[in-house]
């Protein structure tokens, strides 16, 4: 069940990244074609690749470290958008779209923290079992 939630959040953020990336060229008057759509969708999936991969059982600690490193940039973006943003509390009490985006940031932040914790916990428990 938790893998489903994590993957759902990853898909949401990948689609949100693609949508926001596509809305900029449309806002300045450029035409959007299928190549733009596929490129920004691919970039959105790449931005969430660490979260996607964290749901799989990976035994090699080097790959787990690589997944954690891949997750760091978007995690830092979520951290900056929630706790280090001076207007975050104002957005929580603002317009409905601001409230929805703030809730998405909080949920995404929690899912990223849980994914990090789960990867570290599995590695730590594996080392404990090996020592016994």
Overview of this protein structure:
It is a single chain. The model has no long low-confidence stretch (mean pLDDT 82). Helix 1 (2-27) packs across helix 2 (34-47), helix 1 crosses helix 6 and helix 4 (61-82) runs antiparallel to helix 6 (96-131). It is built from six helices and no strands. The protein is globular, with a radius of gyration of 17 Å. It has 132 residues and is mainly alpha-helical. It has helices at residues 2-27, 34-47, 49-53, 61-82, 88-92, 96-131. The two termini are 30 Å apart.
Q: Please tell me the overall pLDDT.
A: 82
Distance between the termini: 30 Å
Which structural class should the secondary elements be placed in? mainly alpha
Unreliable stretches, pLDDT < 50, 5 or more residues?
none
Number-wise, the strands total 0
Biggest beta sheet attributes: none
Radius of gyration: 17 Å
Strand content: under 5%
Order of helices and strands: HHHHHH
Number of helices: 6
Helix fraction bin: over 70%
Q: What coarse outline follows from CA principal-axis ratios?
A: globular
């Amino acid at each position: 069940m938790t893998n489903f939630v994590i993957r759902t959040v990853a898909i949401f953020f990948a689609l949100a990244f693609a949508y926001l990336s596509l809305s900029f060229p449309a806002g300045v008057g450029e035409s959007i074609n299928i190549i733009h759509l596929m490129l920004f969708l691919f970039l959105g999936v790449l931005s969430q690749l660490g979260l996607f991969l964290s749901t799989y059982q990976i035994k090699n600690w080097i790959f787990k470290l690589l997944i954690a490193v891949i997750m760091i940039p978007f995690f830092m973006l979520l951290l900056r958008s929630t706790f280090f943003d001076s207007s975050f509390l104002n957005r929580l009490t603002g317009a409905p779209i601001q409230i929805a985006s703030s809730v998405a940031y909080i949920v995404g932040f929690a899912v990223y923290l849980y994914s990090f914790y789960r990867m570290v916990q599995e590695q730590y428990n594996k080392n404990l079992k090996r020592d016994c």
